[in-house]
Design goal:
Elements (H helix, E strand, L loop, with lengths): L5 E9 L2 H16 L5 E6 L6 H7 L6 E6 L7 H21 L3 E6 L10
Helix pairs in contact: 2-3
Length: 115
């Protein structure tokens, strides 16, 4: 009889559909891989403001939330959006750091080393 895999849940916020589709694809790849150590859920709603998501997430203990967003271009609208997201996370970090840790990923390359 096959050994049941341990369950792990990872929390993300993503800026757009492309990032969300990637994480859903990655979850499927991990969960269908016979050699994977864990069965995972990559909780990844579209949310441009990760602080808003962190404040509505109900979890016990410390939780890491990875916000995936990209730097679109050097146009004013894109640089402002990018900087606003960084500033918002920085401004709110101290207030909610006891429950949540933010990690900003600038590329869609992720390594989930314990999976």
């Amino acid at each position: 009889m096959a050994k049941m895999k341990e369950y792990r849940k990872y929390y993300f916020t993503v800026e757009g559909e492309t990032e969300q589709w990637y994480l859903q694809w990655l979850q499927n790849q991990i969960n269908t891989e016979p050699a994977s150590t864990y069965k995972v859920t990559l909780d990844c709603p579209k949310q441009k403001d990760p602080v808003k998501r962190a404040k509505t997430l109900i979890v016990t203990g410390k939780t890491d939330i990875t916000h995936i967003f990209d730097y679109e271009s050097d146009e004013d609208v894109h640089t402002t959006q990018f900087q606003t997201a960084l500033d918002r996370m920085k401004d709110e970090f101290d207030a909610i750091s006891f429950l949540h840790t933010f990690k900003s990923e600038f590329y869609l390359t992720m390594i989930l080393s314990d999976i």
